[in-house]
């Protein structure tokens, strides 16, 4: 995705354009493009957290199944 791809994903308002032109003037550049890095980081962290929760629930389910398997075996029902 190119430099304008983040505007498609994160949105682009007149304030973004004004900030870009002011920063370009400050840096004495013809054009300056903003990138939406923060949203990408937040999105990645959220995906990592969801993956962690899924892994935790999977392991918890395995432990619960093992526990009931042992209980049923000890009770003579397994």
From TrEMBL:
Task: From the Swiss-Prot or TrEMBL record, give the protein name.
Answer: Uncharacterized protein
State the organism of origin. Answer: Camellia sinensis
């Amino acid at each position: 995705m190119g430099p304008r791809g983040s505007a498609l994903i994160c949105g682009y308002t007149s304030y973004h354009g004004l900030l870009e032109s002011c920063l370009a003037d400050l840096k004495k550049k013809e054009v300056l493009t903003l990138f939406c890095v923060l949203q990408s980081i937040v999105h990645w962290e959220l995906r990592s957290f969801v993956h962690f929760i899924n892994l935790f629930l999977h392991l918890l389910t395995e432990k619960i199944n093992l526990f009931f398997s042992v209980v049923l075996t000890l009770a003579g029902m397994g």
